[in-house]
Every structure is written in structure tokens, then in C-alpha cells.
From TrEMBL:
GO terms for cellular component: cytosol. One of its GO terms (molecular function) is AMP nucleosidase activity. PANTHER family: CYTOKININ RIBOSIDE 5'-MONOPHOSPHATE PHOSPHORIBOHYDROLASE. The lineage of its organism: Bacteria, Pseudomonadati, Thermodesulfobacteriota, Desulfobacteria, Desulfobacterales. InterPro entries: LOG, LOG_fam, LOG_family_nucleotidases. Its EC number is 3.2.2.4. Gene3D superfamilies: 3.40.50.450. It comes from the Bacteria. It catalyses: AMP + H2O = D-ribose 5-phosphate + adenine. This is AMP nucleosidase. GO terms for biological process: cytokinin biosynthetic process.
């Protein structure tokens, strides 16, 4: 078949379903996967193929299909690049592309990259100049990811990540944003322009609404800067006063004035806390070390406001719903009947879990 020659006839569409009731179409899809070889997650690959076929049936707009096609390709490549480094914690750093090497913010970003690498983290930046280049410089190419964007101006790949196999250039901002946040175990923000503010609000919105599991979000004001302090004042004086946000929302981020303080805040977050996952209606918090029953009692008393009516916090082993995540069965857990409303208070509870507060028997 000539791949450059389009189909000239369109057969009557068959109604396709994501559940397996498509007869010969499903058989053909499984046959295709068998011929391709190496397919491990048959269920999801089958559904992706069904989605593509349904899109082809339903949408004649090439622009829509190009967007779907490019998005799938970009997300596939993202998973390929980050996949080998799943076990390494990564810190995404945002900030202005226009910062020059002779200013304090640039030097602070170089130092942050260096200290993150020394603490065992890899860094993710936009791969461009300014703060991005500074962080990549400090961490070094081996410990750096650069996820760039195609722009008609300003954004050229910096020399640290240029040609690096851990460098990706995206067509769409939204795919790039997914990579920035999905792969991060912490986010650090330096001062910047519209893009930096957009990224700050994006992460805050996701963690405030529970669409992204809680991670450290740190705002750095380098020497001589009051950028983030002024921004926080605005949040307090306008958004909070007007009732658009609540006081506990300020637990979702921390202000720092130097690189070491930022690294210390990230380390503290993972001191005992390991990860969290939802198992049905239960929130499972996995920990690197067990907490005492006395501390669990104190948590129940101090954070009863974030529990569903009649809910509680208890210690536990792994739940059956977690069995798809291997390598974590040994971790102690607490099960929280969380109301999924106040993530600022949940963030505060994680701070208490990590602290020595209530640790005495």
C-alpha cells in the first residue's frame, strides 16, 4: 500500500466500545499487538487504539487530530526519557529566562542546582537560559533534565542540556507542564515573568484541589529580592481577605531566602513521609519509619477537622488496592478517612508526621 496515498472511500463506521465487545476489531487489535511484540499492558494499549479509531470516525478536522497525535507522541517520549530514572527524586525549578549570570538570582540558582545534586536529587528545568541554565549548570548535565518549548523567540536550549539524551522539546505547553509536575518530587520557584507566575499558580491549583499529590513547593527570594514576599502579601490582602482562598492554603508552600534552606525543606518533607495513594475512599500515607500509637492518637485529635464524619486515622499494613505498586509493602502506613477538601491542613499534618511533635510515648 502506498502510505502517501490517502484512502478515497470511507466505509460505514462500526460502533466501537472501550469494553471488549468489538468482535473482529478487538481480534485485529490483539493480533497487531502480537505482531508488534513487547506489549506488556495490553488493556491500556488496546484502549488507546480504540480511542484513536473512534477519533478517526468522529472528527474530520485535521487540526483536532494533529493535536491528539502530537500529544500522544510527546507524552510517549516523555515516559521513555523519564522512565529509567523513576527511582530518583527530581526537583523542578522555575524562574526567569532573562536573568543574566552576573546577578544574585543566577548565582543562587547555580548553588541550588549544586546542593540538590549533592543531596541526591536530579533537576528538571525548562532547558533554556537564565534561571534554567543556572540550575542545570549547578547540577551538571548528568543530573539534569531539560524540557524545552518551541518558541519563535527567547527559548533556545542552554549548553548544559543541548544534545543531552535527557532533553525534550515540546510543541504544546500543556504537555510540557504535565512533565514538569508529574515527574517532580518538589518544585522550587525563583522570581520570573508571566510564565513563572503561571507555573506557580498551576502547581498551587493542582495541589490545592488534590489533582496532584502533595509535594514541597518552595519560593526563593534571592538576596535583595522581595518578589515572592510581595506576591504572598497580595494573596493575604486580596485573595484571603475576600474569601477566595483559606488560611490553611498557605501551608501548601514555603518561602526561602537561600538554596540551602530550600534543600533542607525538601529533605524535611521526606524525612518520614514517603508517598500517598488513595485506596477506594481511604487515604494511605506511606512512611519511611513507623510512628507511635500515641502520635496517631494526637493526630486524630489535632486533625479531626479533615476527617469524614465518624472517620479516624489508624496504623496499617499495605491494602489490597495497592498491590499494583511493587516494592512498597515493607513501608509502615497510616490510613486516613480524609474528606478530600482541605489539602492545606493535610499538608500541615504531613509536617507534623515528619516532626518530633507527639513522638513521645
Amino acid at each position: 500500500m502506498n502510505k502517501d496515498k490517502p484512502f478515497t472511500s470511507v466505509s460505514r463506521p462500526k460502533i466501537l466500545h472501550f469494553h471488549e465487545s468489538n468482535g473482529p476489531v478487538d481480534e485485529a487489535i490483539y493480533g497487531l499487538m502480537e505482531k508488534a511484540g513487547g506489549i506488556r499492558q495490553h488493556k491500556y494499549i488496546r484502549e488507546m487504539i480504540i480511542a484513536a479509531l473512534k477519533a478517526g470516525q468522529e472528527d474530520e478536522d485535521q487540526a483536532d487530530l494533529r493535536l491528539m497525535n502530537t500529544t500522544l507522541k510527546e507524552m510517549r517520549f516523555t515516559a521513555k526519557i523519564f522512565g529509567p530514572y523513576r527511582e530518583v527524586k527530581k526537583v523542578t525549578v522555575f524562574g526567569s529566562a532573562r536573568i543574566m549570570p552576573d546577578v544574585a538570582a543566577y548565582q543562587a540558582a547555580v548553588l541550588l542546582g549544586k546542593k540538590l545534586q549533592e543531596a541526591g536529587y536530579m533537576v528538571i528545568t525548562g532547558g533554556g537560559p537564565g534561571i534554567m541554565q543556572a540550575v542545570n549548570e549547578g547540577a551538571g548535565a548528568r543530573y539534569s533534565f531539560g524540557i524545552n518549548i518551541q518558541l519563535p523567540f527567547e527559548q533556545k536550549t542552554n549548553h548544559i542540556v543541548d544534545g543531552n539524551p535527557k532533553s525534550i522539546t515540546y510543541k504544546y505547553f500543556f504537555n510540557r507542564k504535565v512533565a514538569f509536575i508529574k515527574e517532580a518530587h518538589a518544585v522550587v520557584l525563583f522570581p520570573g515573568g508571566f510564565g513563572t507566575l503561571d507555573e506557580a499558580m498551576e502547581v498551587l491549583t493542582l495541589v490545592q484541589t488534590g489533582k496532584r499529590n502533595l509535594i514541597p513547593l518552595i519560593l526563593i527570594d534571592p538576596p535583595g529580592s522581595s518578589y515572592w514576599k510581595t506576591w504572598i502579601d497580595f494573596l493575604q490582602q486580596e485573595l484571603m481577605v475576600q474569601g477566595y482562598i483559606n488560611p490553611p492554603d498557605f501551608n501548601l508552600f514555603h518561602l526561602a531566602d537561600n538554596a540551602q534552606q530550600a534543600v533542607d525543606l525538601i529533605n524535611q518533607f521526606y524525612k518520614r513521609f514517603h508517598s500517598l495513594v488513595y485506596a477506594g475512599k481511604k487515604l494511605v500515607i506511606r512512611m519511611n519509619s513507623k510512628i507511635s500509637e500515641n502520635k496517631i492518637l494526637k493526630l486524630n485529635a489535632s486533625f479531626s477537622d479533615i476527617l469524614v464524619h465518624g472517620g479516624k486515622i489508624i496504623s496499617s499494613g499495605p491494602l489490597p488496592e495497592e498491590l499494583d505498586e511493587s516494592g512498597m509493602d515493607h513501608l509502615p502506613r497510616i490510613i486516613v478517612d480524609f474528606d478530600r477538601l482541605n489539602f492545606g491542613r493535610l499538608r500541615k499534618m504531613i509536617d507534623v508526621i515528619n516532626s518530633d511533635e507527639f513522638d513521645t510515648q
